[in-house]
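Changelog-adjacent note: as of this version, every example in the card shows the full chain rather than a window. The one below runs 76 residues end to end.
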Amino acid sequence: MTSGNISLTWQASEDADHYNVYRLKGVSSEKLAEVKSPEYTMKGELWKSYTFRVSAVNSEGNESELSDPVGIVVTP
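Full-length structure tokens:
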């Protein structure tokens, strides 16, 4: 995290056309974005916790299983 931004990066997948980034909210997931490169940045709120999962999608639209969850709490 830098200046209020949360930056995620992950290992690229050879077969990926793009990646889906999800944020976990309770027991459900919210799709935040589709990104071409293995990175995502968003604005974080101070003292709020966030948990993310990522999937790879190939050119035929097949989506991989979600990654293990990664959590962060935004602190000053």
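Structural remarks: The chain is about 0% helix and 50% strand.
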